[in-house]
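REQUEST ID: PR-0412
SUBMITTED BY: lab tech R.K.
PRIORITY: routine
TASK: structure prediction, single protein chain
INPUT:
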Amino acid sequence: MTPQELRSLCLEFNASTEEFPFGPETSVFKVLGKMFALSALDGSPLTVNLKCDPDEAVRFREKYGAVAPGWHMNKRHWNTVTVSGLPAPVLREMIEDSYDLVVAGLPKAERLRLDRP
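STATUS: complete
OUTPUT:
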């Protein structure tokens, strides 16, 4: 997956935005102001930090060498994923799960507006 494909994937979710609160080199993808992914899209290798259920985070780390505890993040709830080390469907699932976890923490009215009850 290329950096542009990663950006496009993160932006295809309802109400997702790309912001640069940490400087122009780090893309932060948010839904209604809450972060669900961040990546230095020009980094080599290309990595992305994703929110993850703590139990699932451990399972992903055990199964895939490309998944590590979140760098500069709460390591219980975030993973750093080397994009080239995962099959595209698994990466997509992880990004969608991250988005869904963030949406689940939003007020019910906002979740319904996003079509994610």
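NOTES: Residues 88-104 form the longest helix (17 residues).
REVIEWED BY: pending
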